[in-house]
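TODO from last week: model Type I restriction enzyme, R subunit.
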Amino acid sequence: MNDLDTEADTCRKVITPRLQAVGWERSPHQIQEQRIITPGRILFAKGGTRRGRRKRLDYLLRYAPDVPIAVVEAKASYKTAAEGMQQAKLYASMLGVKFAYATNGADIFEFDAFTGVETKRPDFPPPAELWDRQKAGLALKPEGEEIVLTPGRPDPEQPLRYYQEAAVLRAVESIAAGRRRTLLTLCTGAGKTPIAFHIAWRLHQARWTAMPGRLRARILFLADRDVLVKDPQNRHFAPFGEGRHRILGGRAPGSREVFFATYQALLGEGPDATPFAGLPRDFFDLIIVDECHRGSSRDESAWRTILTHFSAAAQLGMTATPLHEDARDTYAYFGTPLYTYSLRQGIDDGYLAPYKVRRVVTDFDATGWRPTAGELDRFGQEIPDEEYQTKDFERVVALRARTEAIARHLTDFLRATDPYAKTLVFCVDQEHADEMRRALSNLNADLMARDPDWVCRVTADEGDVGRTHLDHFQDIDQRTPTILTTSQMLTTGVDAPTVRNVVLARVIGSMSEFKQIIGRGTRVREDYGKTWFTILDYTGTATAKFADPDFDGDPVAVTIDTIDPETGATTSTEDEPAEDQSETGDGAGEGGVIPPGDGVGEGGVLPPGGGGGGGRIKYYVDSGEAEIVVDIETELDGDGKLVTRRVVEKTSDIVRTLYPTPIALRTAWGLPDKRRAVAEALAARGLDVSELAEAAGQPDADPFDLLCHVAWGTPPRTRRERAEALKRRKPAVFERFGDDARAVLDALLDRYEAGGPDELDLPEALKIGALSAMGNTSEIAARFGGPDKLREAVIELQQEIYAA
């Protein structure tokens, strides 16, 4: 095999034939080559957004159509096989498969996640051998094997995303192996409901049951809110047809296959309700608990009785909340997640939208508010002389001026961007949501005259009217309602893919609720131009939560640049995480679940006349004025940080972080493989060298010099200057070869001047333009004495271009 063979040549000539030789069939059902698994991170760029590099598998091996079992990472023949093992293990972990292989065509290395052992193999294992090892690792019995291998996609033309397929398979394997409790942790926006449907459908197709003697399983989809069961029943689970039934009260029929219920319906709330819908303990085979962190598994929760009553059923929990204090009992009940997909992963893959954060502070929030001596509120109540802060606003004291100031700022923002951009405004309670709705309505009377539903309140009190507004808001082809004001009702279960603005007008206490709220904006709809969204934070919540270690891994910093209005001097500060001053759960009921009514006075605050039970009175202040004193916009960069810096400043920081000195950068930049790694590292952090060249005013600079210029202040040089300097400084690079070889090097240097260092990559560089006229790859290599000598000459050429 030619030493200049590319990775693609190695795959075509060696790896695929070796796989086929041991029994793998070259078809989508067994060998999938060059499979793209992510669309590429959405990166902010000048004039909008662009996609970063997509993740692509060299090989995905499937034992059956719906059973991926191994990944193979290929390397070119001139590299070592071991170089690909880290990448292979990463992809295997992403896809949830247990076997990873790395090969350069000659050598094969295997990693077995069941044993944790990495070994060198003489060849790839045949499909049957690999499946036997998989069955042993999963402890699958014959009946469980049959269930896992049963095809289960109602529409093969609509493939699942890689992590959805992994989550479905892991859950089906676990249930088929007889595990009674199973947990999947996937971030908001990742599509937990489609995953739940595909799990149910595969088990249905395989005729799995937990109770002996049944022909079909009975499956319960359980959630704590009406909207979380209504939408799945009508949309995602539609292929079950007449086999669906919604439990609303009274007794449930036993002739259906998939049941949908809220906790309240099964607990028998109301005078005519029947506990557990009159169903026996062994009625269900599987219970899927959506948003299971919201109280269903807590020992002290009344809803736990549902799971206890139907304990004969297998129970699958689904949550968007990673393990921390407000979800610890969920993990104690269901166990370690079989599969996890985080918000950070979703954004990095490009399946979820990144965001900009606009932090806005009123003077009341900046300095606090204190009543004058003896000041009375709207109802004639004397307001206690205290210093009130953000955590108190709308809970203890309702300041109309602050609400109107927020409404004015939001109005100005929408009119400057898009007054019909779908927007969710999260308020303290239902009363606050109505005050905000009214303020926005009055400030936008012209829009309301044309579209009376431009802004609406959707809370529990609206009932069917509110649900209609919500349905229209979720409809991507309906322009109104444009804005929904709410308190708790829309924090979960609202699939509105075109939401462009998430507004925080209340402090968010728990990390799980914060992620749920942020998740309202993470859906991507590129066909509608929705690739990112804005968080408008009027409380400081976002700053505190992004800096919390529980926010999907490393803390996300908010960098604020302040410009002195007199001197123009710029100072940068890093916000420290603010103390969580809100009441736990933001007034929600047990486990973050809303108590009936979702009403005014939640959070322990009572309106006038409601002073019983030890609650505090809420005071209403209609006088005074509030102003916006801080308005700072930051964006999520490719490194997961919120930054406000200019392109040049951002590049400077990132380059110096990755490469402490110009010499360290040059060492990496001079070699093609390492140079690509540099470019990928920069692109992953949202840096576009062409955008940088324009921002730095250096359009002709060599990219290496441009990076050094912005990072360390070195003089920028053009590619022509570098090429001419090489000829003067190191003529031996050319002179030690014959005329034929020198012609090749001269042509390569011309390509570098015209297009940059990427034009020197072998063997691609030999197949274009003047070089292609000099012969094929082997003929050109012969001018140097063979492929190795050619490669050494081109590497030396690149290193000398960037020497000194």
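Done. The chain has a mean pLDDT of 81.
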